[in-house]
Amino acid sequence: MTSYDVIIVGTGAAGLFCALNLPECLSVAMLCKEGLCDNDSFLAQGGISTLRTPDDYEPFYEDTMKAGHFENDPDAVSEMINASTRIIKDLLDAGVDFEKTDKGFSYTREGAHSHNRIMYHGDSTGKEITSKLLETAKTRRNIQMFPYMSMIDIIHKANACNGVVVSDKSGFHALFSKAVVWATGGVGGLFRNSTNFEHLTGDAVVLSLIHNIKLRDVSYIQIHPTTLYTPKEGRKFLISESLRGEGAILLDLRGNRFVNELLPRDVLSLKIAEQMKSDNSEYIYLSAEKIDKNELLRHFPYICKHCEEQGFDLTKVPIPVAPAQHYFMGGVLADLQGQTSMRNLYAVGETACNGVHGKNRLASNSLLEALVFAKNAAHRLSAKLENFEKTEVDLSVYGGDFLKKHRHLFTSQINPNEALFL
Ligand SMILES: Cc1cc2nc3c(=O)[nH]c(=O)nc-3n(C[C@H](O)[C@H](O)[C@H](O)COP(=O)(O)OP(=O)(O)OC[C@H]3O[C@@H](n4cnc5c(N)ncnc54)[C@H](O)[C@@H]3O)c2cc1C
After folding, report:
1. Nearest ligand 1 atom to alpha carbon 203
2. For residue 146, which of 36, 4, 19 has the smallest C-alpha distance?
3. Coil, helix or strand at residue 255
4. Residues near 164 by beta carbon (within 8 Å), at least 6 away in sequence
5. Residue 15 Cα, ligand 1 centroid: separation in angstroms?
6. What does R_g of the chain's alpha carbons equal in angstroms?
7. 45: Cβ below 6 Å to ligand 1?
8. Which residue from 40, 129, 173 has its CB within 8 A of the most atoms of ligand 1, so it is best to mutate?
9. From the CB of 12, is ligand 1 less than 6 Å away?
10. Cβ–ligand 1 contact at 133 (below 6 Å)
11. 8, 40, 56, 286: least CB-packed within 10 angstroms?
12. Bridge partners, 320 (sequence order)
């Protein structure tokens, strides 16, 4: 039988940062459905918001609340903003490289931000952050990683979670632990048009429904206003909001500007949908003509390259864009330390909902939120596990509910008399 102190499901920014903030005396298993880099954290383009100066606290708070239609949890928003400078320091310590000017760090802006407060690395900020976290996690001897392993269920008794049931190419296995952290990302895989990886199908939400774990705001789905239009199936390519922040404009089919490009995402997506309807078209255009060509190529190399591969020279011609599903504001109800309604079960990152985003997420707040609350969860877990009693348990008793029923499924050897931490 295999057991760990902590099992973290998901190797995106939230899962990795949680693992890295756990003490190295704890054994940690991290698993993910596909490869270690196949997650939305690697796709983040625009950047990560931060409290640039103390004066910006009020405007940052107000922008976040306004974007969220004031349905945000005020404590969660304060916590996120106040923790942001510490998080940026952690990232710099991990070797993350943010864009600089002669005067210091460079800050960009996206829709509904009243100030430039977003730190970035070209247009591949998520890759820069997450790859550095992954590199560090790979050096930790207490962390074991299992790519291509899917959680298909949890093991629980009396509303306490003690592990997960997983499947991989060799079959089904039960992994036990003192605590489980869900960092399983969003729900984009359920949509025809989404910017998310297709394997992100809201599995933690499904398991919550099955096991009566509380959910919150599951209808709060964010549609991103601008993805490169293609009639082809599959993941849609995001055209970052920071392009609009730097001066790109939106045009109808006749080439007329029809909207303020920096409206909050939900409002802008609706305006674009209305325009597409009135033009009887599946897209509108985004023109980056107003941005200096060198700046465009320097700040957005990844987007320019992708557009070129699809036959569009962003420096010269407007590109067709359309809205697509992008982010899940709702999710598994969690407090500010990631605790769900089931004991020993934590949820962090896009999977979790602590109310920080309200009804609509402010751009570039999700990497920040994922890191802040993943770190909080790690601290709560460390404190709890320190006092955790190591108890020998007869697994066949525990298995009365679950293992006996599913025993025929498991390919790995489960010895019912082995010691188990519960
Ligand atoms: C194109 C794009 C651009 C973005 N740009 C920005 C940006 O500029 N700034 C910003 O703040 N945010 C941005 N976001 C949002 C942000 O990237 C995500 O919200 C955030 O990275 C989510 O991190 P996460 O760790 O919660 O989930 P993810 O990084 O998506 O990781 C989820 C992990 O869970 C695993 N998993 C899922 N289900 C299972 C299962 N059943 N069993 C095992 N493993 C499972 C996956 O394999 C994966 O490893 C962007 C998102 C996209 C898609």
Report:
1. 41
2. 36
3. coil
4. 7, 9, 31, 151, 153, 154, 155, 174, 175, 177, 180
5. 10
6. 22
7. yes
8. 40
9. yes
10. no
11. 56
12. 285
Q: What is the spatial distance between Cα 282 and Cα 370, in angstroms, rounded to a whole number?
A: 33
Nearest CA to ligand 1 atom 3: 44
By the 10 Å C-beta count (0-12 exposed, 13-18 middle, 19+ buried), 4 is classed as buried
Tokens of 340: 């769900």
pLDDT at residue number 390:
45
If 0-12 CB within 10 Å is exposed, 13-18 middle and 19+ buried, where does residue 147 land? Answer: middle
Contact 113, 362 (CB under 8 A): yes
DSSP letter string over 93-130? Answer: HTT----EETTEE--B--TT-SS--EE-STT-HHHHHH
Atom of ligand 1 nearest to the CA of 184: 34
The residue whose C-alpha atom lies closest to atom 14 belonging to ligand 1 is: 44
- Encoded tokens for 78: 């304060």
Atom of ligand 1 nearest to the CA of 125: 8
Nearest to 236 by CA among 274, 283, 287: 283
Task: Indicate if ligand 1 lies below 6 Å from the C-beta of 238.
Answer: yes
- Could you please report the per-residue DSSP string of 189-243? GGSSSBSS-TT---HHHHHHHHHT--EE-TT-EEEEEEEE--SSSSPPPB--HHH
Secondary structure letter of residue 351 according to DSSP: G
From the CA of 350, how far away is ligand 1's center (Å)?
A: 7
The candidate with the shortest Cα–Cα distance to 348, out of 5, 2, 20, is 20
Nearest-CA residue for ligand 1 atom 20 is 41
Residue 163: Cβ-neighbour burial (10 angstroms; 0-12, 13-18, 19+): buried
Determine the Cα–Cα distance for residues 274 and 134; give it in Å rounded to an integer: 42
Judged against a pLDDT cut of 60, whether residue 401 lies above it is answered with: no
Tell me the pLDDT tens digit for each residue of 262-275: 998 889 999 999 99
Q: Whose CA is nearest to atom 35 of ligand 1?
A: 10
pLDDT at 408: 53
Residue-wise pLDDT tens digits, 110-154: 888 999 999 999 999 999 999 999 999 999 999 999 999 999 999
pTM over 0.85: yes
